[in-house]
Design goal:
heterodimer, A: 424 residues, alpha+beta, Beta-Lactamase, Immunoglobulin-like, 3 domains, nine-stranded mixed sheet, five-stranded antiparallel sheet, 8 helices, B: 994 residues, 38 helices, 14 strands, 44% helix, 9% strand, globular, cytoplasmic vesicle (chain A), phosphoprotein (chain A), Clathrin_mu_CS (chain A)
Chain lengths: 424, 994
């Protein structure tokens, strides 16, 4: 059904740690993985599934590690990849950083986790907050208290333990919208969308019931109210804790939140977004002599708002040299290892326009290799504001002890996949 | 919450009325969630890496001493060192007894490590593994559920047959444990044990206990029980383990709302195997599954999509809910493209299937498939594929602009595919053709070698689709002739030159230049060159005689390739016998090329839809193609639709098997230049090598190979030029010296060869009978029969003209029928049929046509058209011609399947007056693809167990009883579609008595 065994390999393909769950695939098969991967890479046909005989390898790469699942059945591939990424998430929460060294330094816990996360190829409890309650790095002595833990694991509420206490009960809500834009070389917007995410940091005692109210157009239509601005969310994805059937029937977002930080939901909005930072560029390449770059950046958002930490990344040929810059504001820097110029503007007020000019030399002997045409990418962050106009209308918090709790909200808009193609 | 922004507005109006309170303690928010345990930082003194460093000599000995130490702490350290050694691949199995001695401990971590050791080494030390049994039994009764679960989980991982039986009692207790954590672990343990010793699990009644757990109050237990049962059922396809009924379905749907994301996937995957009773049940399940589309886990979403795609088949299309459901599917599919690249890849491979099955779902979502610069190559290629599928008149401008952008990238595979995509767009969306052609010309101007070659290949297709429209670009193409080094591009260019020879002044020079290295070319190019030169010759006979002579002799005399040789001979004979006919044949109008390419064959597509999310859907292959031991497992299929009534009860409905035999419904996109040759495919299996010698039974009359034929061509076209006749040299040695006199064109003789020379296959074919009497068809009489020759179903007909006038323009069509029979090509009557003439025609049939159940089942309704009128008749074909060549079941599968098919489906028949012995009967039947799997002799009676498989994947199992001296046979047939039994019986009778 899913994985027969899970392996963690280093970059050379050496097994750092592994766990055989089903015993139906020879563990030595993993030796074929790296040669296979190299072969595919050479042929330019890299693929997340590789097979050798009747064995299939599903793999992902994380820092200097490969996480590989083997199977010889018609496994649920999407489940396997989800699980591998979950593995990365759990290990990262345990060890801060997941890399070769942290696996070696914590092999006992890694074994314990591998034992707990999956059984006979079936993923089990993968919520790292709950896992941390009974799988610890300390050789935990058996205490009576420990025997209570599994109830959370198998509870319908498997993401929150009982008996949490805070002096001050608060919830912090972050509404973060990322703008994805793809602009053609001639300046027309090919595609754009907004991916929103609502994140929580919950510091609430007991087992609170929460209800989140948004200015959701469908909800307003359902309840027959049409005051104020509403937002149509194309697709909404929820954390495990949200009652999906409830949302499906009456658009109520109700849940018992996990403790601490979590992503409550994400949504996608398909409307045309005006690119908040507009880039016009002229890149002229004079073969064998030089490249002239002129980039104009314009803030297409309200004057009151300010975009922070703006970075405009302009690609340059890999054999360019002797950079010279001129900017009307901010700093330009050549990053040769990435073949780009990074123009940083700490604070970019709405409605303003800035210029950057760059000049590079080119060697007289031309580079034979064809180079790709990387786009200009932009990074930025605009606080206090969401492009879609989504708003948190209320957050109701009810706990049987009846405490008062305060919800706090902040809004941020930032760049997501923000690409502008160039002519060169 | 990485943002440094730090002002929070309180949304609710706080009681003190301060509406815009400013909260300043941002640090608390931005700091990561403080870990429950300390000392988590790697690199600190506490790390485990120190255990890896002991590499002294006598290490094992030292460890042994430490393991037996009295100090608990030292023991634990020692076990950790052992595990560390194990991790780096050292053999520490020698320490088995010492490690097992540490098992009795109240330290959970130590216990886990010992268990881990046990799992790894128990198999190599089976005798000593017994030592551990007691502790397991004891731990399964520990007051701590964690320990109980740990014990039962580890137990199942110790794959030592000897100890399994000791574990039954503890497992039984754990399955009934009060703690759900233990129960859910025990549920999985049943699957583990079943894998080691299936019989034991059955005898102990664990399967029933497992089934009971589906009704457990705890959702996690339900989910694991479902997973375990599905796993067991998968390896034992014929066990009726997952007996899904509306009650269990309801329980599963309830648990679905409450269990973990993984549990939801187990349940959804299990639901996907269920077939609802009617459209109402189907709808109610869909309604309860749709909320899962909002789950954050992509795998949950895809599994939900699988259930919905499958159950949707049963909903009437005019139902409002059907439309609603379609609309609900698009957004989650699009969102999957924001997932991690590997998950995107799985999603895209599945979207490719979904778009083919239900194009309406994503038709407005073109933009989301636009390629991003930083997409991994595997994502780029898949997106491109889907873009072509979604291209339509509405979005073509955008798509073309994108494709042109991609075609200037640097990644060779991606660029090639992009260029091809432009060609596909031209063919798919007629309005865009002109723009596509000009885009391709722009790309040719870039002179990037592989771009040029790719562009020429697709332009050839565009010429095929829109003849006489874009030939003005030929000059540009010819400029690039020299740079073409890939066979496909060379073949395409040659095709173009041949096809438009009359417009290219130096066509002969161009083709001649290719001829120089003829033997170094690939077959594809050789075949194309041969055809192109023949075309050239037929168009410009005067200047090109030498050339055609040269290529014919190269192809027939100097080549070892039978295809090339055969094609050479055909042309040669055509040209020499009846050049006018040759012209008609070689320069005939070509069939249209298909708009869609690389479409997955429909039955396979249906099967793959049932496997959404799995490796099968990623490979686009049925599981049987890549999972060992899954042969004979029933292929999954979509349920029949309720609304349209179309084919709902046909035995064929979606039974998605027998894929390999069914020819794809579309002409392959590229490279199939062969197909255009004569628009005929010499369907009867040509015996390779030179045409049959006189001994094959054909009469070979006297005819001069180089007779007057050529003269008549030249004469007709050029007004006579006496020298031409001598142009051809002596006949090649391999050619038979004589041929029958041309009756109605040499080609017919060839057909005769293939059609009626007895095939060695011995497949049963009934004698020809009159299907359409002349009385009823204005003088056209058709008699015919059906046959299966080398895997190809054929309808063999004699058309006789009993009227006074010439008959031409023959065409044929079938009505929908039970097995989807359809002509695989047009009816090949290439010459007019004069009064009192008859002509033999063999029409190859495919089984991918539309399906409708007929009464009787093998009834075929046919319409034949000629220049006079349209005539209808019906005939019945022997079902034996649908028996495919790979219909031999494995013995084991046969036994299991025979048991599995309910007795109600068994039909028994008597075959009277048959005088063959059992071996003769067996071999006779084998000729018609009825395979004898086993033979048993009981009390003088021979029992033959036989299997056959129909083209649509239905298996028929038979038991044939033959008693020496008794001319009456008894045949028992078992089949999941019992309605075919009667027909099969009739075929048996016919096959045996023939």
């Amino acid at each position: 059904m899913s994985a027969s065994a899970i392996f963690v390999l280093d970059l050379k393909g050496k097994v750092l740690i592994c766990r055989n769950y089903k015993g139906d695939v020879d563990m030595a098969e993993i030796d074929h993985f790296m040669p296979l991967l190299m072969q595919h890479e050479e042929e330019g046909l890299l693929c997340p599934v590789l097979s050798h005989g009747s064995v299939h390898f599903m793999w992902i790469k994380h820092s200097n590690l490969y996480l590989v699942a083997t199977t010889n059945k018609n496994s649920n591939a999407s489940l396997v990849y989800s699980f591998l990424y979950k593995l990365v998430e759990v290990f990262t929460e345990y060890f801060k950083e997941l890399e070769e060294e942290s696996i070696q330094d914590n092999f006992v816990v890694v074994y314990e986790l591998l034992d707990e996360l999956m059984d006979f190829g079936f993923p089990q409890t993968t919520d790292s907050k709950i896992l941390q309650e009974y799988i610890t790095q300390e050789g935990a002595k058996l205490e009576v208290a420990k025997s209570k833990v599994p109830t959370t694991v198998t509870n319908a509420v498997s993401w929150r333990s009982e008996g949490i206490k805070y002096k001050k009960n608060e919830v912090f809500i972050d509404v973060i919208e990322s703008i994805n834009v793809l602009v053609n070389a001639n300046g027309s917007v090919m595609s754009s969308d907004i991916v929103g995410s609502i994140k929580l940091k919950t510091m609430l005692s007991g087992m609170p019931e929460l209800r989140l109210g948004l200015n959701d157009r469908v909800l307003f239509a359902l309840t027959g109210r049409d005051k104020g601005k509403t937002v149509t969310m194309e697709d909404v994805k929820f954390h495990q804790c949200v009652r999906l059937s409830r949302f499906e029937s009456d658009r109520t977002i109700s849940f018992i939140p996990p403790d601490g930080e979590s992503e409550l939901m994400s949504y996608r909005i398909n409307t045309h977004v005006k690119p908040l930072i507009w880039i016009e560029s002229i890149i002229e390449k004079f073969s064998h002599s030089r490249v002239e770059i002129m980039v104009k950046a314009k803030g297409q958002f309200k004057k009151q708002s300010v975009a922070n930490n703006v970075e405009v990344r302009v690609p340059v040929p890999s054999d360019a040299d002797s950079p010279k810059f001129k900017t009307s504001t901010g700093n330009a820097k050549y990053v040769p290892e990435k073949n780009m110029v990074v123009w940083t503007i700490k604070s970019f007020p709405g409605g303003k326009e800035f210029l950057m000019r760059a000049h590079f030399g080119l060697p007289s002997v031309e580079n034979d290799e064809l180079e790709g045409k990387p786009p200009i990418t932009v990074k930025f962050e605009i606080p206090y504001f969401t492009v879609s106009g989504i708003q948190v209308r209320y957050m109701k918090i009810i706990e049987k002890s009846g405490y008062q709790a305060l919800p706090w909200v902040r809004y941020i808009t930032q760049s997501g996949d923000y690409q502008l193609r160039t002519n060169v | 919450m990485k943002a440094d922004v730090d002002v929070f507005a309180n949304v609710t109006q706080s009681k003190d009325g301060s509406k815009n309170r400013v909260w300043e303690g941002t640090k608390a928010i931005t700091a990561p969630c403080s870990p429950v345990t300390e000392n988590r930082q790697f690199g600190s003194k506490m790390t485990d890496s120190k255990y890896f460093t002991t590499t002294k000599k006598g290490e094992i000995f030292e460890l042994k001493a430490e393991l037996n130490s009295d100090k608990k702490e030292k023991k634990k350290e020692a076990v950790k060192k052992v595990i560390a050694s194990m991790t780096v691949g050292k053999d520490v199995s020698a320490l088995f007894p010492d490690v097992v001695n540490c098992m009795q401990t109240d330290n959970l971590e130590l216990k886990k490590l010992v268990y881990l050791y046990l799992m790894n080494y128990a198999k190599s030390q089976p005798d000593m593994a017994i030592m551990a049994v007691n502790t397991f039994v004891k731990d399964c009764e520990d007051p701590n559920p964690l320990i109980r679960a740990l014990a039962v989980r580890t137990m199942g991982c110790i794959r030592v047959d000897k100890i399994t039986e000791y574990l039954c009692e503890p497992l039984r207790k754990c399955l009934k444990d009060e703690d759900p954590y233990v129960r859910k672990t025990a549920a999985v343990c049943v699957a583990k044990l079943h894998d080691i010793n299936a019989q034991l699990v059955e005898d102990q009644g664990f399967l029933d206990t497992l089934k009971d757990l589906i009704s457990d109050s705890n959702p996690m237990v339900v989910a694991n029980a479902v997973a375990a049962l599905s796993e067991i059922a998968e390896s034992h396809p014929n066990s009726n383990l997952l007996d899904l009924n509306p009650q269990t379905i309801n329980k599963l749907l309830t648990a679905l709302n409450e269990c973990t994301e993984w549990g939801q996937i187990f349940i959804l995957d299990c639901l996907a195997n269920y077939t609802p009773r009617d459209d109402r049940e189907s709808q109610s399940i869909c309604e309860r599954v749709t909320p899962r589309l909002s789950h954050a886990n992509s795998a949950v979403v895809l599994s939900a999509v699988k259930v919905l795609m499958k159950f949707m088949e049963m909903l009437p299309k005019d139902l409002d809910y059907y439309g609603t459901l379609l609309k609900k599917l698009a957004p989650p599919l699009v969102t999957l493209l924001s997932a991690e690249p590997e998950l995107q890849y799985v999603a895209l491979r599945n979207i490719n299937l979904i778009v083919q099955r239900r194009p309406e779902i994503l038709k407005h979502e073109m933009k989301v498939f636009f390629v991003k610069y930083n997409d991994p190559i595997y994502v780029k290629l898949e997106k491109l594929d889907i873009m072509i599928r979604l291209a339509s008149q509405a979005n073509i401008a955008q798509v073309l602009a994108e494709l042109k952008e991609y075609a200037t990238e640097v990644d060779v595979d991606f660029v090639r595919k992009a260029v091809r995509a432009i060609g596909r767009c031209a063919i798919k969306v007629e309005q865009s053709a002109e723009r596509c052609v000009s885009t391709l010309l722009d790309l040719i101007q870039t002179k990037v070698n592989y771009v040029v070659q790719e562009a020429i290949v697709v332009i050839k297709d565009i010429f095929r689709k829109y003849p006489n429209k874009y030939e003005s670009v030929i000059a540009t193409l010819c400029e690039n002739l020299d740079s073409l080094d890939e066979p496909e591009a060379r073949a395409a260019m040659i095709w173009i030159v041949g096809e438009y020879a009359e417009r290219i002044d130096n066509a002969d020079e161009l083709l001649e230049s290719f001829l120089e290295g003829f033997h170094d070319e690939s077959t594809q190019v050789q075949l194309q060159l041969l055809t192109a030169i023949v075309k050239l010759f037929l168009k410009k006979p005067t200047e090109t005689q030498e050339l055609v002579q040269q290529v014919l002799s190269l192809a027939t005399q100097d080549s070892d390739n039978p295809d090339l040789r055969d094609r050479g001979y055909i042309y040669w004979r055509l040209l020499s016998t009846d050049p006018v006919a040759a012209k008609e044949v070689v320069l005939a109008e070509k069939p249209l090329i298909s708009e869609e390419t690389d479409l997955i064959e429909p039955t396979l597509l249906e099967e793959l839809i049932c496997h959404i999310g799995t490796l099968a859907s990623v490979y686009h292959k049925p599981p049987s193609a890549f999972v060992e031991g899954s042969r004979g497992v029933q292929h999954k299929r979509l349920p029949g639709s309720a609304g349209s009534g179309e084919s709902a009860d046909s035995p064929d409905t979606g039974s998605a098997a027998g894929v390999s035999e069914a020819p794809p419904a579309v002409i392959p996109s590229q490279g199939d230049l062969l197909g255009d040759l004569l628009n005929l495919d010499l369907t009867p299996p040509t015996t390779s090598g030179p045409p049959p010698a006189p001994s094959s039974g054909m009469q070979m009359g006297a005819m001069d190979l180089l007779g007057g034929g050529l003269d008549s061509l030249l004469g007709g076209d050029l007004g006579g030029s006496p020298a031409m006749g001598a142009g051809f040299g002596a006949p090649p040695t391999a050619m038979p010296a004589s041929f029958p006199p041309p009756v109605s064109g040499g080609l017919d003789d060839l057909f005769d060869l293939g059609g009626s020379v007895g095939m060695p296959m011995g497949a049963y074919s009934p004698p020809k009978s009159i299907w359409l009497p002349a009385m009823k068809a204005k003088g056209l009489e058709i008699s015919g029969t059906f046959a299966r020759r080398a895997g190809v179903i054929q309808m063999e007909m004699t058309l006789t003209n009993k009227a006074m006038s010439i008959m031409t323009d023959f065409a044929i069509q079938f009505n929908r029928n039970s097995f989807g029979l359809a002509p695989a090509g047009p009816l090949q009557v290439l010459t007019p049929v004069g009064p009192n003439q008859s002509i033999e025609v063999a029409l190859p049939l495919s089984t991918v046509g539309p399906v409708m159940k007929m009464e009787p089942l093998t009834n075929l309704q046919v319409a034949v058209k000629n220049n006079i009128d349209v005539f209808y008749f019906s005939s019945q074909y022997p079902i034996s011609m649908l028996f495919v060549e790979d219909g031999k079941m494995e013995r084991q599968v046969f036994l299991a399947t025979w048991k599995d098919i309910p007795n109600d489906n068994e039909a028994q028949f008597q075959i009277k007056d048959c005088h063959l012995n059992s071996d003769a009967a067996s071999s006779k039947l084998q000729g018609s693809n009825v395979f004898t799997i086993a033979k048993r002799t009981v009390e003088g009676q021979d029992m033959l167990y036989q299997s056959m498989k129909l083209t649509n994947g239905i298996w028929v199992l038979a038991e044939l009883r033959v008693q020496a001296g008794n001319p009456n046979y008894t045949v028992s047939l078992k089949c999941r579609a019992p309605e075919v039994s009667q027909c099969v019986f009739q075929s048996y009778e016919a096959m045996l008595k023939n």
